[in-house]
Structure formats: C-alpha cells, structure tokens
Amino acid sequence: MSSMTLYKHFMKNMITYLQNSLNIAYWKLIAVEFMEKETEGVNPPTIQRIFGDSTMARILDFLTLHRRLDYSKTDIAKNAGVGWKTLFRLWPTLEKYGLVKMTRRIGRAQLYRLNMENPIAKTLTQLALQIADHDNEPIIKEQLAKEIAEVKA
Fold it and tell me: Where are the beta strands (DSSP E) in 45-131?
C-alpha cells in the first residue's frame, strides 16, 4: 500500500471513531435529559422526604440519584436546584466526609460523583433506596391486589 492509501485509510477510521464518540456523548445527553423530564415533579427526592427541603438534602439527593454519572460543580448546583455560591460554600463539607470524588477533567472542568467507596455515601444511598421502598410499598400492594382481582375475575 502506498503512503497516501494508508493515510486515507487512517483518516477514514479516525473520522468514524470521532463520529461514534460524538454519537455516544449525544445519546448519553439525551438519556439524562429524558430521565430528568420523566421524573420531574413525580415525587420529592428521597432524602428531602426525611430531612426536608434543605440545600444539603438537595445536593445529596442529586448525588445519590445520579451516582453513576459524573458532573461539574456547576452542573451539580444547577441540577440540584441550589445556587452556585451555596454549593461552593457547602462543598468543603462534602469533601471533608469523603462523599464526593473527582473522576476526571475535561479541559479546565473537573467532574465529580458520589464516592461509592465511602461508607457514609454507601449508607446515604441505602437510606435513599429504603425511603423509596417504604414510600412505594403501598402502591405495589395496591397494584398486586388489582392484578389478583383481575386474575380471579
């Protein structure tokens, strides 16, 4: 193969790789937006159900709900519904207890997520799941009763 053919082949593969990377990022963004729209206004986040609508509860709810994805501090503040300055005031507390960890950098932005290696973060996540289970139990029982009634009819 000539060097020109190799170059064309390389460029074609590079363009395909970049298109695939952009598609993955695009679909990830679409999925997050869909999830946020679908859950908007359904129920208050779980930690807020117990501790009220405090700023820290909003932040912890967001971090536990979206624990598998990483976000910039600005995105955490926006999505948790708290002011940017408020998040920066409370951030040292989150770091002090090891609840957040930096996962990567994109340009100058640092991305963070809930530190699931931390026992406190694990316990908060379990608490959020237990609250959701508790609140959903009557709904599940009602649905099961309806299904049993339909089967008997």
Answer: 71-72, 100-106, 109-114
Through-space distance between the first and last CA atoms of the chain, rounded to whole angstroms: 74
**Side-chain half-sphere exposure of 123, counting CA atoms within 13 A:** 6
pTM for the predicted model, two decimal places: 0.64
In a domain, residue 100? The reply is: yes
Q: Domain of residue 95: give its range.
A: 43-152
Q: Give me the count of residues in the chain.
A: 153
Q: What is the dihedral of CA 55, 58, 63, 69, to 10 degrees?
A: -110
Q: Tell me: the pLDDT tens digits for 78-133?
A: 999 999 999 999 999 999 999 999 999 988 999 999 999 999 999 999 988 888 88
- CATH code, 53: 1.10.10.10
Total tally of structural domains belonging to the chain: 1
Nearest partner of 37 among 46, 48, 29, judged by Cα = 29
